[in-house]
Amino acid sequence: MQSLAQIDIGPAYREEQEKQLLARIAARKQELGDQLLILCHHYQQDSVFSFAHVTGDSLKLARQAALATDRRYIVFCGVHFMAESADILTADEQIVILPDLTAGCSMADMASREQVAAAWQELAPLVDLEEIIPITYVNSSARLKAFVGERNGSVCTSSNAERALTWALSQGEKVFFFPDEHLGRNSAQAVGIPPEQVVLWSRGEPLGGNSAADLRQAKVILWDGYCTVHMQFSEAQVRAVRQADPGVQVIVHPECRQEVVQAADFYGSTEAIIKAVSESPAGSSWAVGTEINLVRRLAWQYPDQKIRSLSPVDCLCSTMYRIDPAHLLWTLDNLAEGRIVNQIRVDEETADQARTALDRMLNI
Ligand code: SF4
């Protein structure tokens, strides 16, 4: 696989005033015209977000890239796994670029293909592997998606994880769900799987810290990955915000812990959170449990509602934040001068198998 080392963009970019950076990005965007498609995830900082041709969650952005066949350069302002998905879904001649190669995802990094393959082999003496259907959240590496694709499994998103679980249990006896424990647990609860049939696979422990009997009776095995941003929300915060404002509605992302999701009024993907707020009448009060850039943008877009973060401290995706105006400009300057930097390429074999898992999701 390609190296993720980011070269230093140099002081001319790092020390430039933000106002100048933004003016130069606007000029380069215009110069590159119809060759260019800038995609921005909802968690992106505003100074970068304002240059997006398309905004959305990771899968929507990857699909938009695939539809924009006339755009040669896809600059993906998100994190590494998102740019990989875009490369898998786009045509060979389209070039996907991540402005800073260090913009990874801590959750995706918690489940390498090698770790997952070792766990899979540990299960072999206990259960028929053909009866285990692997499901991976889209927040995972292309290599893990390929592992899942090879074993009759599927990708899922935070919007369709419940459907994916139900589908998987119609195909086999058990589901092995990667990498997010909490999305898996919340989805299992939503589709009525009893908690005693859901077990956690702890990395680094024999049999993931389970007994052979527990694994044999489990319906769902959850990998112990998590999102460092959504783990910052707590049930105590839900109680505190309700005490301060009895009329508040609490909405959280399903990457939050189960007790937070259960204490909230609503839970859903970033797109579902945006929809719920956008459809609410003036005067509504919301406490939102997701990344701070999205929460701030909602508050700014709907000033007639009271919208704040569920957490009193800012919950920021620090890796996504690495895509800043300086790196975006550096990327566009290079493109305008005929150089391609930071291209994200998934090798053909991995891409084919990962695409199988992505296609399976679309057909569920
Ligand atoms: S918010 Fe969490 S899951 Fe999303 S990219 Fe950041 S670390 Fe990964």
Description:
- The chain is of the alpha/beta class.
- The protein has three domains: 11-104 and 319-346, Rossmann fold (3-Layer(aba) Sandwich); 108-227, NadA-like (Rossmann fold), CATH 3.40.50; 230-309, NadA-like (Rossmann fold), CATH 3.40.50.10800.
- Helix content is 43%, strand content 15%.
- It is built from 17 helices and 13 strands.
- The chain has helices at 11-14, 18-32, 46-49, 58-67, 80-89, 106-109, 113-123, 142-150, 161-171, 181-190, 212-217, 235-244, 258-263, 270-278, 292-301, 325-336, 348-363, and strands at residues 36-41, 54-56, 73-77, 95-97, 132-137, 154-156, 174-178, 198-201, 220-223, 249-252, 266-267, 285-289, 306-309.
- The protein has a five-stranded parallel β-sheet with strand order 6-5-7-9-8, with helices on both faces. It has a four-stranded parallel β-sheet with strand order 2-1-3-4, sandwiched between helices. The protein has a four-stranded parallel β-sheet with strand order 11-10-12-13, with helices on both faces.
- α2 (18-32) runs parallel beside α16, α4 packs parallel to α5 (80-89) and α8 crosses α17.
- It is globular.
- The two termini are 30 Å apart.
- The site of iron/sulfur cluster has 13 residues, from α6.
